Every structure is written in C-alpha cells, then in structure tokens.
Amino acid sequence: MEMRAKHIMREGVFVRPETAVKDVAHKIISTGLPGLPVINDTMEVMGIVTEFNVLGAMREGFDLEAITATRIMTTDPITADIATSANDLIQMMLLNNFTLIPIVANNKYVGVVSRHIIMDTMLSPFYANFTARERKGPFVCK
C-alpha cells in the first residue's frame, strides 16, 4: 500500500481566526511545526500562519497580543485530500516551496503534513508500519 496523507498527517493542530498572534507563535514553537492552519467554526481552512508571517509581524512592530491570526495569515492556501500520496505531497511542496500542507476530507480540515513529517516518516525504521493497515488513530513508534 502506498503511503498517503491520512497515514502520516498530524491531527488536531490548528488555530482559530481570532487567536492572538502571540498565542499562534507559542503554538508553532510548542508543536515544532513551521506553521499552523487557520480553521473556522465549520472546519474549513481559511489560511495558514507560518513562522515567516510571525517574524514579519515582529519586524513591523505589531503588538502580537492585539492582532489576530487573520491579520497575518496567508489566505487561500492549497490543501490536499487525505488520499493524496506522499510523493504528490512532496511534489506540491517542492514546486511551491511550501513548508506544510493542510489535509482535508470532504473539504473539512482533518490534519496537516509538513516537510519534516514526510522526511521523518520515510526515514523511519518503522516506515512499513505507516501503511501496513488502515489508520484508526495517530501512529506511534514503539
């Protein structure tokens, strides 16, 4: 079975449009991801806030406690379906210089895949476990 987004995506990692940029920055740091999708109440992807967006806001002197994710996010992000192959995700990242891609099912956000996640998965000695059976929850290396 070919590795797909649903096998490797990280679930439950996002911010809301009204999240203060300072909180977004802390979440980016704590998750180790290069950015986070901005998700509305109906689980649609509105945008992405990356480390670069946060750094730009810092450089401009914005009050990171007063401005929200919607102020600095990149709008209309490209997403990928849960059935997208790892090779197609890599191609999307390379062609567009993306650091992460929100993953959707039926146009609703379900997870995110970053360059680091793909590299970590493909280099893992447990690589075969990622696609050995249908995913029922987060993958854990033991």
What order do the helices and strands come in, and which of them pair?
Layout: H1 5-8, H2 21-31, E1 35-39, E2 45-50, H3 51-59, H4 69-72, E3 74-75, E4 80-81, H5 86-96, E5 100-105, E6 108-114, H6 115-123, H7 127-131
Parallel strand pairs: 4-5
Antiparallel strand pairs: 1-2, 2-3, 5-6
Question: Which descriptors apply to this entry?
Answer:
single chain; 142 residues; alpha+beta; CBS-domain; 3-stranded mixed beta sheet; 7 helices; 6 strands
Task: Provide an overview of this structure.
- The chain is α+β, with helices and mostly antiparallel strands and 142 residues long.
- The protein has one domain: CBS-domain (Roll), CATH 3.10.580.10.
- The chain contains seven helices and six strands, in the order ααββααββαββαα.
- It has helices spanning 5-8, 21-31, 51-59, 69-72, 86-96, 115-123, 127-131; strands spanning 35-39, 45-50, 74-75, 80-81, 100-105, 108-114.
- The strands form two sheets. Strands 1-2-3 form a three-stranded antiparallel beta sheet. It has a three-stranded mixed beta sheet with strand order 4-5-6.
- The radius of gyration is 15 Å and the shape is elongated.
- The mean pLDDT is 91.
How would you write the strand order of the largest sheet? 1-2-3
CATH architecture: Roll
Rg over alpha carbons = 15 Å
Give me the secondary-structure category.
alpha+beta
Which regions are unreliable across 5 or more consecutive residues at pLDDT < 50?
none
What name goes with the CATH superfamily?
Answer: CBS-domain
- Output the number of helix runs: 7
Tell me the total number of β-strands. 6
How far is the N terminus from the C terminus? 21 Å
